[in-house]
Amino acid sequence: MKHQDLGVLTGPVLLFGGPYSNLQAFEGLMAAAQRLGIPARQMICTGDVVAYCGDPSATVDAVRQAGIALIAGNCEKQLAAHALDCGCGFDAGTTCDLLSAGWYSVANVQVSQSQRDWMGDAPDIIGFTHSGQRFAVIHGGVTDIARFIWPTSAGHVFEGEWNAVEAVIGAVDGIVAGHSGIPFTRNCAKGRWINAGVIGMPPHDGGQQTRFAVLDQGQVTFHTLDYDVGSAVHAMEQAGLTQGYHTALQSGYWPSEDVLPPALRRSALASG
């Protein structure tokens, strides 16, 4: 696995995932970072720059030009390899699996060879030290880049992935991950598992705001992100991406819950 060590980072570090071809969300994130006084060199993306939304090429250019450290997500891996699908890890035949074919085909046409080469150069793991603690940044998992790890996942899932990370880069005090789209922290035997969430799609909570995280003085805080949702929806409609994810930007709910564990579905959240 390709490992990039960023060394010691001082001051707040902004952690985010899944721009998902949502150019407006990324522009909103950069504006939020400026308000927080966090420069691009203190920002790390957990991957999947390209996915559901309508501006794949422009979003890649924006992230690339900003100079933000990037982990290779499954979408980067697949596009770099000229693969025919996103490799998202959806079960075959599920709604999420079927819907992914639409947006991936649009992205596969728009993304240039230069952009694919940039994606192919992205590391699998980023390491850095902050406030005396060592962190690793991954996409989904090390054993499976597209592994969905949820706040409700069993303890052995976190333990297994933690061991896999440390087998590659040595002992760490915290792991930052993405892919699942749900922001959370989980205290594990060896430290904190932090999912920074994604900025390109709301976390299935009924709101339009998306999420990012800030690591500062050893503490993690989650922040809501406001952006121009209307323009993002329009871009999807212009690209012909009207299979359901465009309405998710407005409703705050994913077009299918079949990827989610039962405890994170609307019926369970409502009853809780």
Question: How would you describe what is shown here?
Answer:
35% of the residues lie in helices and 19% in strands. By secondary structure, the chain is α/β, with parallel strands linked by helices. The chain has a single domain, classed as Purple Acid Phosphatase, chain A, domain 2, CATH 3.60.21.10. A 6-stranded mixed beta sheet has the order 1-5-6-7-9-8, covered by helices on one side. The chain has a 5-stranded mixed beta sheet with strand order 4-3-2-10-11. Strand 3 (43-45), helix 2 and strand 4 (69-70) form a beta-alpha-beta unit. Helix 3 (74-80) crosses helix 5 (113-120) and helix 7 (229-238) runs antiparallel to helix 8. The longest helix is centred in the middle third of the chain and has 16 residues, at 95-110. It is globular, with a radius of gyration of 17 Å. The mean pLDDT is 94.
How many distinct helices? 9
Our count of domains comes out at 1
Strand order of the largest sheet: 1-5-6-7-9-8
Low-confidence stretches: none
Highest CATH level, the class: Alpha Beta
User: CATH fold name, please?
Assistant: Purple Acid Phosphatase, chain A, domain 2
User: Terminal Cα separation, in Å?
Assistant: 41 Å
- Count of extended strands: 11
Report the mean per-residue pLDDT as an integer.
94
Beta-strand proportion: 15-25%
Secondary structural class: alpha/beta
Shape: globular
Fourth-level CATH superfamily: Metallo-dependent phosphatases
Radius of gyration: 17 Å
CATH level-two architecture: 4-Layer Sandwich
Order of helices and strands: EEHEHEHHHEEHEEEEEHHH
InterPro entries: Metallo-depent_PP-like (IPR029052)
Protein name: Calcineurin-like phosphoesterase superfamily domain-containing protein
